[in-house]
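Morning - adenosine-5'-diphosphate inputs below, output right after.
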Amino acid sequence: MKNTIIYPGTFDPITYGHIDIIHRAANIFEKVIIGIIESPLKTNFWFSIGERREMVELAIKDFKNVRVQTFNGLLVDFAKSLGVNLVVRGLRAITDFEYEFQMALTNKKLEDEIETIFMMTNEKYSYLSSSVVKEISKFGGDISQFVPEFVADRVFKKLQK
Ligand code: ADP
């Protein structure tokens, strides 16, 4: 499927930075599949896969050509199972570049058909990450400018537990 692209990530939780990439990808490609990685080596998730999926689904409810799927294991295998060979990732800073460069080349080694496309962050969100949202909320800061309200509510509920 040439006009379909996968946007993979952990989305723990989804932020306006992710939503911006989704919005821009959805304007270019016929279909965007958000692939939420269930359990990579990173294990200190705040939100379960079900919670992360629910928030992503709420965030994309107005996008007609975007859907969500969760996956385990290698991105290249997930992409193959869908018959898709395009992947989009966001780049915020030079620090992202090194990791993304390594991932893109590794995926290409594993599966030559896979192409990774990068989108520059929107300058409004260049500092924004799920970790920043979690850090700020832990210290009682206002996260309403970083995530939709339904995400902020869930972050605060998590903190109360
Ligand atoms: P991962 O844990 O796989 O990096 P994330 O959910 O943190 O997954 O991010 C998914 C993708 O979204 C990554 O390519 C990341 O660089 C990108 N991304 C995250 N925040 C932003 C942002 N503020 N602007 C642009 N891209 C972003």
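Note: The chain has a mean pLDDT of 94.

O.
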